[in-house]
Amino acid sequence: MQDYMRLAKIPGIIRYAVFGKERLLEIDRQLSADDRNTADPVGAFMERKGVTFNPAHEVNAQELRTETDIAINHEKLISAGITEVPKEMIEVIVRNGREVESSHIRELKVAKEGNKDVVERFQEILASDGKVKPLMTPERKSEGFKKKTDQFIKAMESAISDVEYRGQVDAELISSLKEKLQQLEETLQATT
User: How many beta carbons lie within 10 A of that of residue 72, not counting itself?
Assistant: First the structure.
């Protein structure tokens, strides 16, 4: 109900009913301030993105939806500051039945911030069917280390409180772990 109320506030929205509620909500999310300040915000968006639509003329509805999905996905990247990826590459992902996801945008931002080739990274996303391995940055490594350490500490606390498990603990493993932690602590102290 809330979605329909949101759409009802957009002037001239009924002319675009062919797109369906979900697609219109996506368009609404991508409207620029200039688009919103027109008498026909959806029409302004379509024109800006090069999608030709005249509600008075019969069109191939599926092709129109596809063109609109390409425009929406392209605008998602532009809104996120990713301007390097050409619209033609977005067309490939959309015509393969997929969309630009927030995880893709995060990966492209990491690539851009790390001065990596954003277009090449997008090609990797396309080639991996959208399931690309995350780029490892010092920040991501640090976050991963913290998560793994927290998980280890919780597992260790559970093991300590389990009387039956204590008898199964390998004392050599504990000694090795203690040595590695000492080395890590010394390394961290030397770098600060």
Answer: 22
Burial 1-14 (b: 16+ CB within 10 A, else e): eeeeeebeebeebe
Q: 102: closest CA among 50, 7, 29?
A: 29
Distance CA 170, CA 146 (A): 24
Both tokens assigned to 103:
């995880």
Distance in angstroms (rounded) separating the CA atoms of residues 9 and 32:
16
Owner of token pair 């609109």: 68
Structure tokens of 79? 């809104």
Q: For residue range 40-81, what is the model confidence (pLDDT) as tens digits?
A: 999 999 999 988 887 677 777 788 889 999 999 999 999 999
Residue found under tokens 């998602």: 76
